[in-house]
Protein 1
Amino acid sequence: MSTPPVEFSSAALQTSGTLVPVPPIAEIASTSRITKAADDLASRLTTARVTDRIEPSYWWEIGLSTFAMESLTPVVQAVSILASAIAAGTNISTSILTIPALLQTTDANTLARQWHKLYTAGIVPMISLAMGSSVGFAVLAWRSTLAPRLAVDGYGVSNVRRNLYVGATVAMAGLGPYTLGLMGGVIQELTVRATGRAKGVSQVKKGGAAATNSELVETRQLVESWGRLNFWRGIMLLTGAGMGVAATLS
């Protein structure tokens, strides 16, 4: 038994000045083979006035906001990855190249002062790079949560990208806790040796060459310890950069 065709009445929907014929609601409801989309359209037409019009600015705002979010995502990805890579490379290169050169110094006072200049010069750039990339990765993790991907088997969703961005966020934000927790003691001792030299100089004069050699050995050990800790801090930041790259390419 075939389904009788739907006859369109003279009712019309005015859209942008054009009369578009639409079937009456009663006829649509009585049709057994209507699609879900048609049902939804019928319910909308019964609850809303045909004469109501949506302001063009509404669609403009939606399109503009969507375009802005989509267009800014690659920028945030590039800036975050670049900043994290620079931070990691700076830490690692400092430990591999700069610290061995400083250790060639034969005066404890000079060695401590040179290290202190190196350390203070890197505080603002390193914090800015690490924290900036951490914020960027956090934003990308949030965006990935809003748009999850299908799992490989086609069932459920995959949160791999989001988890990678979260890991990158934690790794970059870990710069602060790592520095304060693991490197704080060494940094404090070297800072005292570099800035509070009055007491040390008087002790050297009293102790002679033996005291000078002992102080040089201790200062070198402290600088070497800081260099090792700084190297592993760079590895942590490099891991965060790698996770950011993996998330972007996934």
Protein 2
Amino acid sequence: MSRLRTLTVEHLDCPRNYDIIFCRISANPSTAICVRSRSPQLVVPYSHQTADLEKLSVWHEPSRMTVVKLVGATSAICTTSEAPASRDNNLLTHVDLSRIQGVWVECDSGQGSLLPLLRRMTALTTLAVYTDKGAAVLERLTIVGDLDPPLCPNLSTLHLLVNEEGIHNGAHIHEFAVTRFRQGCPLLTVIVETMLTVDEEGILTSLESYVGEVRFKSVKRLSTMTLPAICSEKRHDFWDAAWT
């Protein structure tokens, strides 16, 4: 098993079956593992729970499956669940979220279940929100009690999808940037990604007093987090569909 480079496990009906399999597999942490589960919880293989996992992405497939990617410099997990509201269960108990430095979010429901995860991400520096309901994600980052410290105090870079139906003309970026500034955790960089025409001058004017740098990117495809080499090596081309 020390030579294993990729492992895919699909569609076991009973969550306990995954535990039985993974507690008996001593895969190298640099093995890329893809788990497509019908269980109500995400599956995090035992072999990777102490790996160098530093980035997390959450999104929904058209089938309403929740897909989570966890990657590090050499480690990679892609795991799915049929129950979006339960996606945080195994992440909270089986992953050291205090090491997560980057999060990519593309989901139009279940944002409330992100809050327990964000509370643990004390090292988070980069957040990318690609959803028409992105304001709901940002709002959860500013919900703290009067005596509580801000969530994700090291957050410095924000990637945000701005379009005419969602975060129109950057109004919610302004509100979020002002709140973080007043909490003593100002954003250093805001990267506005759009597939449409937006009011760049208006957004820039509203943010320039609160953010160090504002950049605009007109894109056909949104930015994605960097994956370890194992996910893109030629002999593992089948990963492309699973990791993008």
